[in-house]
Amino acid sequence: MNIVVCVKQVPDTETRIRFGPDGRWIDESGVTFVVSPYDEFAVEEGIRIREARGGEVTVVGAGPERVGQALRTCLAMGVDRAIHIKDDAIERADSLTIARALATAIKAIPFDLILMGKYGVGTDNGQVGPMLALLLDIPQVCAVAKIEIGERVVTAHREIEGAIEIVEAPLPALLTAEKGLNEPRYPSLKGIMAAKKKPIDVRDLSFLGISLPAPGSQPIRWQKLEAPPGRGEGKIFRGDPGESAREVVRLLREEAKVI
Amino acid sequence: MPGGVLVFAEQRGGVLKRSSLEALSEGRRTADRLGRLLVALIAGDGIGRLADQAVAFGPDRLLLIDSPLLAAYSTEGYAAALGQAITHASAEIVLLACTAMGRDLAPRVAARFGAGLATDCVALMTEGGVFRARRPVYSGKAYATVEFSGSLAMATLRPNVFPAQERPPAACEIVRLELELPESAIRARVVRTELAEKKEIDVADASIIVSGGRGLKDPANFSLIRELAEALGGAVGASRAVVDAGWIEHAHQVGQTGKVVAPALYIACGISGAIQHLAGMSTSKVIVAINKDPDAPIFKAATYGIVGDLFAVIPKMIEEIRRLKAE
Ligand SMILES: Cc1cc2nc3c(=O)[nH]c(=O)nc-3n(C[C@H](O)[C@H](O)[C@H](O)COP(=O)(O)OP(=O)(O)OC[C@H]3O[C@@H](n4cnc5c(N)ncnc54)[C@H](O)[C@@H]3O)c2cc1C
Ligand SMILES: Nc1ncnc2c1ncn2[C@@H]1O[C@H](COP(=O)(O)O)[C@@H](O)[C@H]1O
After folding, report:
1. Is the CB of B244 under 6 A from ligand 1?
2. Least enclosed by CB within 10 Å: which of A157, A239, A252, B97?
């Protein structure tokens, strides 16, 4: 089984967000970057499937120099090799452009299964997975919390509103990971040492034969980042619990009119 | 001929999603602002009887794609149907509800058409003819305004944010389209659906949510949360801490790695208000926080806060709500 896992490097969710000088993107100085949490589930699942069935796991990440660290982390977890699509601007491109770059790199290697995150935490787009599946013309199952591999077929459980859908797809297929899929391992010291010897193929866009659209001709782009609208001062009650409870219920009915 | 605004009106099991009616209503407002036709699509098997309900929300044209191949949801089947509708409507803008189905379908279709897509939007704007959308990013620590260029813009809308608005009766042309898809083109298939055990309201669908966190101390105390939710006709939510502890299933988790919700009323009980929890609920219209720690960050998001022991506060709330309901 050859498995490809796409990983996005994202700001740690605890990081303070400041806006960059152009007001369209965050100021990355001082930001701690990590492997997007959903992608960790995908990496863990890829390694587990390989452990059970053999084969190779390749991680692919597109982004600037720093993405190399995210790929090293995955290698230390137990992934076999990594491809770094290195470009300073690609993370700011639209999702379809990112999916095209990933598709170009992935087409050059054999794969039976592609694993991704449900979305890249932070920008929360949830787009690159299905877009990549379309570009590679393979079936997709999104936000899966359980995966079973059969003979040239994968069965996946996905949570929908009020139910779980059990979906079957022929391989090759692309799945995106939901929380609950597994508990990602921490890289062991041995893994970290071993990772130093594993290969990271660095590819730039010209090597892949693609180029980014000019910002003005992207189908979508961030025009402005701003602070969230303030919620106003809340009314806080600190007195007798019974009285506070009654007062809040009254306000919910008479002031907020939600009950 | 200018293109239309197309809304994918999602149905599951023959029921139109409320969040799709919200999308239809927002589609109507968008089409009016831009002077475009509003076209709605219902796809499924035996869905003709849903037409009246969709028409009440004001589309100029309703497309019905009725096929046994669409009896269960499949990405490839529904993507083909939506693709046909986009072509038929010469759509310039496509709106879907940001549901499990919308999240799965929209990006695949956007890739096929080379469209720009904005997911989980909380506002749509048209300024000087330019179509824009606003969406929370970085756990709600910032809002991004995105702008589209190109011939097709797509957006999925966060449920419960856009008001659903019925329209006075008006002419609506109903067009039936044949699904143009061989059965073999549907590769990923739903083989089984397991309904949630009890007939609980899902947090993603609820307009009232009562959530419990580690402050509940013991999984058995979730009964208090369930009782309050029941008194209000709401759903039960949870923080990740209690989901990870195995007190309640992941389906109930609200937050960054759970569900993103925006109900009319969100009551957080014994939840500290970590940024990852806030990411999932901070766009709720009214937020009530019950926490014994006056410095808990959840109070910063609260419309109404009660500093106190939830075991003393919640039973009183239940009592008061039942009394009001009985009146
Ligand atoms: C990558 C990542 C993703 C995450 N995703 C999510 C997510 O999706 N959803 C989520 O919720 N969290 C998420 N978290 C976890 C988050 O950081 C917090 O750890 C979690 O939300 C804490 O849950 P809690 O508020 O129930 O528990 P705690 O933080 O322990 O808070 C318990 C609260 O209960 C109060 N309390 C205690 N006793 C009482 C009482 N008797 N009466 C009233 N109040 C009382 C305390 O004062 C305290 O404020 C994520 C974390 C990471 C790193
Ligand atoms: N720059 C990137 N490099 C590699 N994988 C990516 C990149 N961006 C997104 N992905 C993958 O696509 C998934 C969804 O990302 P997104 O559509 O940005 O929310 C992520 O969880 C990753 O698996």
Report:
1. no
2. A239
**Residue B185 contacts A, CB cutoff 8 Å:** no
CATH superfamily of B5-185: HUPs (3.40.50.620)
DSSP state, A26?
B
Interface ipTM: 0.93
CA of B241 to the centre of ligand 1 (A): 6
**Cβ contacts (< 8 Å) between A251 and chain B: which residues?**
304
What's B208-326's CATH class? alpha beta
Residue A233: inside a domain:
no
CB contact under 8 A, B265 and A252: yes
Q: Are A237 and B306 a contacting pair at CB < 8 A? A: yes
Query: Token pair for residue A79?
Result: 């992934």
Q: Per residue in B271-321, pLDDT tens?
A: 999 999 999 999 999 999 999 999 999 999 999 999 999 999 999 999 999
- Please check whether residue A255 lies inside any domain of the structure: no
Q: Is residue A94 part of a domain?
A: yes
- What are the residue ranges of CATH 3.40.50.620 in chain B? 5-185
Residues B112-128: b if buried by 16+ CB within 10 A, e if exposed = bbebbbbbbbbebeeee
The pLDDT tens digits for A73-116 are: 999 999 999 999 999 999 999 999 999 999 999 999 999 999 99
Residue A89 structural domain: 2-208
Q: Where are the alpha helices (DSSP H) in A12-162?
A: 37-53, 67-77, 95-107, 128-135
Q: pTM for this structure?
A: 0.93
